[in-house]
Give the backbone structure.
Amino acid sequence: MAKDGLRERILAICIKHESIILFFGIVLGLVLRCVMAGFPHSGQSTPPMFGDYEAQRHWMEITTALPVLQWYEQTPENDLQYWGLDYPPLTAFHSWLLGKIGLGFVPECFELFSSRGHESAACKLYMRASVLVSDLLVYLPGVICATWGFASE
């Protein structure tokens, strides 16, 4: 019985301070992402595939350098065995948009073929920043809407 009373009090506090809890949860998530950005990524400096960071970078390379109809096709310019694009088209267009923006900041990071395994500090900074911005513009609004939707039930 005492546990039920405690659970109800905690739930009441959470409901009363929902916006504050959500705000601090978002801030904590962003701070953790920023802290993690300083650490090595999986596969860093490990040829031939270089890890998930390289997959994301390579998808930006492919989508900005090749015509749309070649994004999912094995061609001389697109070796699907080397981090072939394997996500749905909406994700590919997200990579395309981020790659187009990235070309303005670090074009060497997205040059077809020559950028494989590219791990410069500027490229890493852009890649990490693109994740944070994507989270703020796409992921976070979804989390907020879902949280408020479930909380209102």
